[in-house]
Amino acid sequence: MLARALTIAGSDSGGGAGIQADLKTFTVFGVYGMSAITALTAQNTCGVTGIHVVPAPFVRAQIDAVVADIGIDAAKTGMLVSAKIISTVAQAVREHVIAPLVVDPVMVAQSGAALLEPTARTALLQELLPWATLVTPNIPEAEALTGLAVASVADMRAAARVFIEQGAKACLVKGGHLGGDESVDVFDDGRNPIELRSVRLPTRHTHGTGCQLSAAITAQLARGVPLLDAVERAKRFITVAIRNGLALGKGAGPANPLAWLEERAQIEERAQTTEHRQQSKKP
After folding, report:
1. Predicted TM-score (pTM) of this structure
2. Beta-carbon neighbour count of residue 162 at 10 Å?
3. % helix / strand / coil in the chain, to the nearest 5?
4. Where are the beta strands (DSSP E) in the chain?
5. Is position 283 within any domain?
6. I need a surface site. Which of 113, 118, 182, 203 has the fewest CB within 10 A?
């Protein structure tokens, strides 16, 4: 049966982040994607010029419709805007037993626009976080939600543990905002923290990377992949997407999820060539 994943997030009219990025990523991983839209944004590579919030009851209606007919193997949340929407989504998650659930605590757009009302932070921590299979904050989000200053990998480890103490089953603190030659993420499932490292790529075309990463993890979970394996594969995926970022528009272009398909095709081609050579050498 085709795996099914739901994204509960905002719409990006520029197509680089939000539900558009999530659905592209689900498709790349061979997963059927569905959406419950929380907000419409007027957005491009230069920034967000407008936000229209979807009424919370209609967000719930979208989730109910999907659950009642198609079903959900995994879900993720992104831009949730308000405490009312967070409470509504958390109630739907509880009542429909939606799991695994990846919570990407989207607070600020890459351009600096606020995407989560300050009063909604408490609702996120108290009502939604306890249902999270994984929470995926970047460093500014980790600082805002934990109250800790995060300026090193050690600080990332401390912040990840705070999220677990607040109820999340696991946490991935993304280190893209730290300097250095490597991009280091910290994964903690309550046991031994693991550092996931990749070469830092010199590009400004990174719009939507948080959405794409959390969507890639969600897609893998929908297909039954264990959590750490899903995170590691998603880390490789987003590195490829950033390396092949799209120079669209006048600002920060989006990472390219479709590059993963090309990467996989090249890997498979190399593997087939190697196998062919080995077969030809046999007597």
Report:
1. 0.92
2. 17
3. 45, 20, 35
4. 4-12, 32-44, 47-53, 74-77, 101-103, 134-135, 171-173, 182-188, 194-199
5. no
6. 118
**208 given a catalytic annotation:** yes
Residue 280 domain flag: no
76, 84, 169, 174: which is the annotated catalytic residue? 174
Could you say which of 206, 218, 239, 245 is catalytic?
206
Residue 209 annotated among the catalytic residues of the structure: yes
Summarised one tens digit per residue, pLDDT across range 52-94 is 999 999 999 999 999 999 999 999 999 999 999 999 999 999 9
Is 206 designated active site? yes
Residue 27's domain is classified under what CATH number? Answer: 3.40.1190.20
For 103, the token pair is: 């919570």
Which range marks the domain in which residue 82 is found? 4-274
Report, in angstroms and rounded to the nearest whole number, the Rg of the chain calculated over CA atoms: 19
- Catalytic residue among 146, 171, 211, 235, which? 211
Among 10, 15, 18, 210, the active-site one is 210
- Residue 27 annotated in active site: no
Tokens at 10, concatenated: 């905002």
Catalytic member of 10, 18, 208, 245:
208
Domains in the chain, number: 1
In a domain, 126, yes or no: yes
Which tens digits make up the pLDDT trace of 161-206? 999 999 999 999 998 778 777 889 999 999 989 999 988 888 889 8
CA distance 80 to 59: 10
- Residue 175 carries which side chain, given as an amino acid letter? G
